[in-house]
Amino acid sequence: MTRILVTGGSGFIGRHVTRELIRRGHQVRILDALVEQVHGSGTVEVPTEAELIKGDVRDADKVAECLQGIDAVVHLAAEVGVGQSMYEIARYVGANDLGTAVLLQGLIRQPVQRIVVASSMSVYGEGMYRSGDGRLLANVRRNPSRMKAGLWDPVSDDGQVLTPIATDEEKTVDLASIYALTKFAQERAVMIFGGAYGVDAVALRLFNVFGPGQALSNPYTGVLANFASRLANGERPLIFEDGEQKRDFVHVNDVARAFCLALERPQARGHVINIGSGRDYSIRRIALLLAEAMEMQDRTPEVLGRARSGDIRNCFADIGKARELLGYKPQHLLEDSLDEMVRWVRGTEAIDRSAEMKHELESMGLVS
């Protein structure tokens, strides 16, 4: 497989995937709508070795053009963001679900050997937990009345304190946002299509991706980029709830390698695979580490004590399956990568739109 189509290949993850594919000797064609919220209105950076076709993945004619002579597809094109998905519902369902459907329909007439789709850890809802008596719980949900009282951590049905543990791919899907719903639909559509048409299909469930190149002026991108944008503008990072919620942060270069491995490894066929760092970090700790790296320790986080609709408390990755099937091993841990992130932030214009995002969510009744 030498000729690869990367949908959404001009985005944050897509650019890194494209560069890694080229480094490994592949020819890359990019299909990207160049949405202003993600790319701004400036020049889009694309490797000179790649071919860029501007277009929407929902445009069947454009998709057919892009698929000519292609051996495999990396499908990244999607609207991203839990909060925004809760009120821009048609936009998210249209771009993510209809876009995937149009792509798959195009592949019926112009088949490829393999398709790798970007799914998301958001499909899990809450991650896995262990109860005080040792039981593993895969269907935990938070009680709204407890959350209104500022009791953010979930408890068992009998009131036991629960301990979050790494989440593997066997965990029951529990869709808590429109974004999660669309990502699961993308994932399942690709896997169903692969089985029906004899196309190798792989889905990578990405955890919180970070690194240089993230859209600092898009408030619905990753939390680390949001914090960096706030700090770059002399503001304190905004944290919902109490900041002790835990996530897995994975470097974009590790994610790019994972996509290449998913294309290249025969044993990945038909599998859904977590891609994370295998570590957990509290959101508050992330804000403090970044402020320290930017030499702005006085900008301590502003903890809002309020929750966004669709947010979960804890979820971090068990990456055993990625190690086994892909030979994947994270090489860029967050605590070792912040200096690189800071250098990039300082050379990039960052328009802080966090307050605008917070106002939009509040006006829609999505913050409690």
Question: Which stretches are poorly predicted, pLDDT < 50 over at least 5 residues?
Answer: none
Write down the domain tally.
1
Strand content: 15-25%
Main beta sheet, described?
7 strands, parallel
Q: What is the rounded Rg? A: 20 Å
**Envelope shape:** globular
Average pLDDT: 92
Instruction: Give the strand line-up of the largest sheet.
Output: 3-2-1-4-5-9-14
Range of helix content:
25-40%
The CATH architecture can be given as 3-Layer(aba) Sandwich
Spell the H/E element sequence.
EHEHEHEHHEEEHEHEEHEEEHEEHEEHHH
First CA to last CA: what distance?
A: 49 Å
What is the class in the CATH system?
Alpha Beta
Category by helix and strand content: alpha/beta
What is the name of the CATH superfamily?
NAD(P)-binding Rossmann-like Domain
Task: Describe the 3D structure.
With 368 residues, this protein is an alpha/beta fold. It has one domain: 3-Layer(aba) Sandwich (Rossmann fold), CATH 3.40.50.720. It has 13 helices and 17 strands. The longest helix is centred in the first third of the chain and has 21 residues. The model has no long low-confidence stretch (mean pLDDT 92).
Name its key features.
single chain; 7-stranded parallel β-sheet; about 375 residues; about 35% helix; 17 strands; alpha/beta; Rossmann fold; 3-stranded antiparallel β-sheet
